[in-house]
Amino acid sequence: MAGILFIISAPSGSGKSTLVNQLRSLVTGLEFSVSWTTRGPRGSEQDSREYHFTTREHFEQMIRNGEFLEYADVFGNYYGTARCTLQEAFSRGRDLLLDIDVQGASQVRARMPDSVSIFLMPPSPEVLATRLRNRSRAEGSVQEQIIERRLAKARQEIENYREYGYILVNDILDRAVEEMTAIVSAERIRRNGDAGIAADNPADRERVLRIADSCRQANSEGRVRPVLEAFGVPELSPTVE
Ligand code: ADP
Ligand code: 5GP
To answer: Which residue of 42, 74, 83, 96 sits with most ligand 2 atoms within 8 Å of its CB, as the best mutation to test the pocket?
Structure first.
């Protein structure tokens, strides 16, 4: 049976890495794609753990060889998902999670319509700015110019939320983790009849399905509206069921 491809996108600083790291310890049978990038390692990042770090020349050779399922230019650097990452995870009978930007997510959705896409939003620009500053401070230095650039990009990215099947707002981390875990379980139940994690009794299954359902884009209006207002993004009717 083919594995499930999960995609998560979020504006930089929303807490996506934090959420994904927590998910690692909670969900079995889910592999985390290691992307290729031409940006340099940050903080304690290690080659082939957070990313496969490489040169532009090598990345462009990989593009010419057709090695990428998707790739994009993000903040002036290339980022891409190698096709072999997907093939290897699925051949091991695992599901795969891609942490990729909105351009990459759109390419994957077009190529793999069965994929499950999740958009994580910060609660407001003020909270996002604080998180970006805190992270930069922890990594050495705060450059206000970079923070401003990322805030402007966040607004553009949030405009794409309608392309995603599920929407999470990362206000309280534990809740976002619970919702993300529920989405993985619910999709497994829906496709395989089996959650693969602690949702084996009927009450747990019911709960997981209810939580995941509340995160579907079509059901997220109430939570999403204040975020859109805070970022100044116009609200339209949902497009994805
Ligand atoms: P991303 O991967 O989306 O760029 P990070 O996971 O690096 O973002 O998170 C950015 C900063 O925000 C980090 O300092 C992280 O500890 C913090 N953070 C993440 N989620 C929350 C949350 N729910 N509440 C408060 N701080 C958070
Ligand atoms: P960062 O440099 O902060 O790790 O990541 C910057 C952005 O690049 C994030 O939005 C992240 O999701 C995105 N990204 C990471 N890997 C990939 C990838 O393989 N493809 C695409 N399209 N985006 C990626």
So the answer is: 74
Query: Residues 188-210: pLDDT tens digits?
Result: 999 987 656 555 688 889 999 99
Q: Is-contact 77 39, C-beta < 8 A?
A: yes
| pLDDT tens digits along 102-135 | 999 999 999 999 999 999 999 999 999 999 999 8
**Structural domains in the chain plus CATH codes:** 5-32+97-231 (3.40.50.300)
> Which residue has the CA at smallest separation from atom 6 of ligand 1?
15
Q: Which ligand places an atom closest to the C-alpha of 8?
A: 2
Tell me which residue has tokens 């923070």: 147
Pairing of strands 116-121, 166-169: parallel
Return the ligand 1 atom nearest residue 138 CA: 14
**The pTM is what?**
0.93
Q: Which atom of ligand 1 is nearest to the CA of 135?
A: 14
Ligand 2 atom closest to the Cα of residue 107 is 22
